[in-house]
Amino acid sequence: MIVDDDRHINEMLNERLREEGYEVIAAYSGTEAQLLLAGEKPDLILLDLMLPGLSGEELIQQIKGIPVIVLSAKAETADKVGLLRGGAADYMTKPFEMEELLARIDVQLRRAEAAPDKNILRFQDISLDQDAHSVACNGTEIRLTRTEYAILRLLMLKPAQVVPKLTILENISDDTPDCTEDSLKIHIHNLRRKLKAATGKDHISAVWGIGFMLTDCS
Q1: CATH number of the domain at 2-114, please?
Q2: I need a labelling partner for 159 at 20 to 30 A (CA). Which of 34, 42, 130, 168 fits?
């Protein structure tokens, strides 16, 4: 993803990256990038700082799990250090050499590919992103309540294990302080329904008198 309000730079980067074989998404403001990121997860972001709407500094605070290379005219060391400490993977000062940028993009993509994504839990066709607090089945996002998300996360942390009802109630108390054993059944029912609608499979089994567990539907 390229996020730069300078149309000339944005289109120049877009054209060159496509020539290199990359798929490219372009945004011309921080607000537009924020909207796109709600439905897209690019492998890497090239981010300008001086953007209309949401600034690059504000946007980078919302980006989790995606390497960001900042492209900015700000050349002060303090600016660079602040952005790198604030979450940027790399920083290049404008104007820059295209060949150097391509090399840095390649480095970041190789690092991301080699590093295990510890913040994503997976169980069969379900993936749970602990940074974004989102759940997807076969790449399609499922809308869950905070309580449903907390329950599913707990079950996915203990795959193929029965999680006692008391353990679930203790662990989701921050999301639903007044949750009882009876209301827990309702949350589980709604979660099972949503997962089944997305996958066609009943992924959660009740173990009578004990608790719940994820079910291998292969």
Answers
A1: 3.40.50.2300
A2: 42
pLDDT at 68 over 80: yes
Domain limits of the chain? 2-114, 120-214
For the sheet with 120-123, list strands across it.
120-123, 126-129, 134-137, 140-142
- Taking only the tens place, the pLDDT of each residue in 87-108 is 899 999 999 999 999 999 999 9
**pTM of the complete model:** 0.57
Contacts 24+ apart (CB under 8 A), 103-108: 104/69, 105/17, 105/44, 105/46, 105/69, 108/44, 108/67, 108/69
At 111, give phi and psi (nearest 5°).
-65, -45
Assign domain 120-214 one CATH number from 1.10.530.10, 1.10.10.60, 3.40.50.300, 1.10.10.10. 1.10.10.10
